[in-house]
Every structure is written in structure tokens, then in C-alpha cells.
Amino acid sequence: MSKTKRHFRKTPAKSRAVRKIVKSSKGHFVGELVYDNINGRPQRLGFGSYTEFKVAICLIYRDDFADLEEQLAPLPFTHPTGRASSHFFDFRYTTKGGQRICISVKPERIAKTFVYQQVIDSVRAAAVGNICDVVATVTERNINPVELHNAELYHAARKPDPVFDAVILEALNDLDGPVSINQFLSDIGVYGGGFFSVVRAIRAGHARLFVPEEIRGKTLIERARVA
Fold first, then answer.
1. 87 pairs with which residues across the strands?
2. Alpha helix stretches (DSSP H) within 3-143
3. Pairing of strands 207-209, 179-180
4. How far is CA 5 from CA 110, 175, 177, in A?
5. CA gap 112, 108 in Å, rounded
6. Euclidean distance between CA atoms 175 and 169, whole angstroms
7. 102 near 96, Cβ under 8 Å?
8. How many CA atoms lie within 13 A of 52 on its CB side?
9. What pLDDT tens digit does each residue of the chain (227 aa) get?
């Protein structure tokens, strides 16, 4: 009797948000994404605004990424007015080196105000050494459009294709100079079908960008040099 090999998709781990994220909101961009954590396991992560989504996707695809938690438990702190208060951080980012960064995502118009700066200073005093090592505020102005474009592309291309990936890696070994992605794919007869494989090769360090830029068909790549 022949046996059929079955492939099971891993069920993503539940969101770790302590503060509830609404399922839908009129006029607001809310939702959930699934990413592969440092152990290769799918993890759900919720976001309550489009800026939060952009911050999250950029953080997940940083080279020093180890973990990202969203909507932490309320942090008690003493407000500048002297009253007891609490603060909800949107994210806690952990680097491969173990540094924990608590992040508040705010519109630039709010983050630059004197009142917010006073409050976040008080929050920082309560957070650092307790739930994190660093406190940061991120606004829409802090999001690099090139980094965002490439992070979204890495996310779209995150699922491997063993056939295309093997062809791309073999061809990269024979690459002796910069070439556009489109030309590279054309030269090996793969064309557009291998674009995501090239993206994964860049992400994995098998290829690199000739100059830092948004990854597109016209982007020049070269074989990664072995250190």
C-alpha cells in the first residue's frame, strides 16, 4: 500500500497582548499578522493602528530581532502631577543580545509636545530596570520607507520554495559581479517565478544589495562575500 506524505501547517501561537485590541474600528487600521519567531514557529501579533503595523513589521525583520510582544500589562508610575497612574506600552522588543526595549507608538504631533515628554520621562523612570532596559517613542517620522518596503517584502516571501530556492542558490554561486534581479532571473531561465527566492536569499545573507535600496526587479544584487 502506498503511503502519502502529509504536510501539516503549524498552528500560530496566540497573541500575547494583555491589553485588548479591538477586532475592528471605524476609521482605524486594526488587525493581526503572523510571523515566524526566532525558533521558526508562527506567532500571532495584533496591532491597533497602521503605524503600529509598520513599526512591528520593521522590527520583526531587523537583523538583531529575537522577540516582539505587543500591548503589555499596565505599568504603574507616578504622573508628573504626583498622582498614581499607569501606562500601556505598545511593544517590547528584545534583541538577540538580550536588550529589552519598551516602545510607545505615538503620532509625531503628540510625541513632540512638552506634556508628553514630561509623562514619558516619568514612565521611563518606572520602566527601566523593571520591565525593560530602554524606553523609546516611535512616530511615523521614524519609519524609514526603504526599510518598510523591504520588511513587507521579506514578510510576503517568508515561506520557502525548495525547488526555486535551490536553483537560485546554485546560480548565486556562479555570480561574478553585480546584476539586476530581473537580469539574473532571465539569465538562468527562471524569470518572475524566482523573485521571492531571490528575496529570501538576500534575507538569509546568500546575496546582498549592491547599494541599500528598495528591493525591486531592477535592484542590483551580488553574491555575498564570505567573511
1. 75
2. 50-60, 108-111, 114-127
3. unpaired
4. 55, 36, 41
5. 6
6. 10
7. no
8. 23
9. 344 444 456 888 998 989 877 665 555 678 889 998 888 889 999 998 999 999 999 999 999 999 999 999 999 999 999 999 999 999 999 999 999 999 999 999 999 999 999 999 999 999 999 999 999 999 999 999 999 999 999 999 999 999 999 999 999 999 988 999 999 999 999 877 899 999 999 999 999 999 999 999 999 999 987 54
Tell me the three cell numbers of residue 202: 538576500
Computed over its alpha carbons, how large is the radius of gyration of the chain? 21
Q: Which of 30, 32, 47, 39 has its CA nearest to residue 65?
A: 39
| Nearest alpha-carbon partner for 102 in 125, 74, 72 | 72
C-alpha cell, 177: 559581479
Residues 3-38 as b or e (16 or more Cβ within 10 Å = b): eeeeeeeeebeebbbeeebeeeeeeeebbebebebe
Cell (9 digits) for 4: 502519502
Give the three cell numbers for residue 125.
Answer: 523612570
- Concatenating the DSSP letter of every residue in 64-88 gives TEEEEEESPPPEEEE-TTS-EEEE-
Q: How many Å apart are CA 65 and CA 60, to the nearest integer?
A: 6
